C-alpha cells in the first residue's frame, strides 16, 4: 500500500525528496521518494554519512517536494553518474 501511495505522490510531483549538494565533487544527489517530509528528514543522516565516507566535502541538504529527472547530477562526471543506479536502489527505505 505504501508503494502505491508513493507512486501516486511521485507522479503528481508531491513526493518528498532529500536533495544533497556537495562542493567536492560538485554534485547534486536526490534520495527518495518519501511520503512525508519527516520520513525524508529521518533518513538524510545515512545518505550524508555515505557521501562523507566516499570523500565528499562541503555537504548541504534540503528536504523538499520535487520530481527529479536524474538522481545524480555531477559537473565532474557529466549530467548523469554511475551512482544513479545505486541511489535508485537504496534511496527508498521500506
Describe this structure in words.
- The protein is of the alpha+beta class.
- It has one domain.
- 37% of the residues lie in helices and 31% in strands.
- It contains three helices and four strands.
- The protein has helices at residues 2-11, 37-53, 83-90; strands at residues 16-24, 27-34, 57-65, 72-74.
- A four-stranded antiparallel sheet has the order 3-1-2-4.
- The protein is elongated and about 35 Å long.
- The chain starts with a helix and ends with a helix.
Mean pLDDT: 85
- Assign the structural class, choosing from mainly alpha, mainly beta, alpha/beta, alpha+beta, or little secondary structure: alpha+beta
| Largest beta-sheet characterization | 4 strands, antiparallel
Count the E strands: 4
- Segments where pLDDT lies below 50 for 5+ residues? 79-94
Count of separate structural domains: 1
Provide the gyration radius in Å: 13 Å
What letter string, H or E per element, gives the SSE order?
HEEHEEH
Instruction: Report strand %.
Output: 25-35%
> How far apart are the first and last residues' alpha carbons, in Å?
11 Å
Discrete helix count: 3
The percent range for helix content is: 25-40%
Spatial order of the strands forming the largest sheet:
3-1-2-4
Overall morphology: elongated
Amino acid at each position: 500500500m505504501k508503494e502505491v501511495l508513493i507512486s501516486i505522490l511521485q507522479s503528481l510531483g508531491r513526493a518528498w525528496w532529500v536533495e544533497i549538494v556537495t562542493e567536492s565533487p560538485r554534485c547534486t544527489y536526490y534520495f527518495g521518494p518519501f511520503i512525508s517530509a519527516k520520513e525524508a528528514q529521518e533518513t538524510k543522516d545515512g545518505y550524508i554519512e555515505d557521501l562523507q565516507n566516499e570523500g565528499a566535502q562541503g555537504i548541504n541538504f534540503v528536504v523538499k517536494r520535487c520530481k527529479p529527472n536524474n538522481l545524480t547530477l555531477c559537473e565532474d562526471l557529466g549530467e548523469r553518474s554511475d551512482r544513479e543506479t545505486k541511489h535508485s536502489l537504496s534511496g527508498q527505505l521500506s
